[in-house]
Amino acid sequence: QVQLVESGGGSVQAGGSLRLSCVASRSIFSFDAMGWYRQVHGKERDLGKQREQVAGISSSGVINYLDSVKGRFTISRDNAKNTLYLQMNNLKPEDTSVYYCWATTDVSRYEFDSWGQGTQVTVSS
User: Fold this and answer.
1) 117 Cβ partners below 8 Å, 6+ apart?
2) What is the C-alpha to C-alpha distance for residues 38 and 56, in angstroms, rounded to an integer?
3) Are 7 and 21 in contact (CB under 8 A)?
């Protein structure tokens, strides 16, 4: 099991920015995909959904974003540092959540997923 360690969370005012970092215990070249998830609150969670993918990047560089963060968040990686980043700009109160780093060596096999412990992001009005 690979270790993923997130950092960079904090408390900011709406419109502010944060950059989350995720350091992997192995070369990120070994991952089929990496990404960021956050806890889901409210009705969706009541219906069974606990986390949603905020952004993801494949080994080939294909990137996907949650619709609500498009144009505000940017996912990137630094292979030399074994680090995944999430630049979060123009933060909104609804972005408040615990953010988790995720990586897998096989996107078709959930048993190969690795998760970080999470980092809290709080955005106040």
Assistant:
1) 5, 6, 100
2) 12
3) yes
pLDDT at 1 over 80: no
Q: Does an H or E element contain 51, and which? A: strand 51-58
Percent of the chain, pLDDT > 90?
A: 79
Confidence class of residue 26 from pLDDT cuts 50, 70 and 90? confident
Instruction: Tell whether the model's pLDDT for residue 29 goes beyond 90.
Output: no
CB 21 within 8 A of CB 8: yes
Closest CA to 55 of 26, 25, 88, 31: 88
Buried-exposed string 78-99: b where 16+ CB fall within 10 A, e elsewhere: eeeebbbbbebeebeeebbbbb
Tell me the CA distances in angstroms from 87 to 55, 91, 110, one per residue in order: 11, 10, 26
- pLDDT one-digit tens code per residue, 42-55: 877 787 889 999 99
Judging by beta carbons within 10 Å of its beta carbon (0-12, 13-18, 19+), is residue 23 exposed, middle or buried?
A: middle
d(CA 122, CA 114): 24
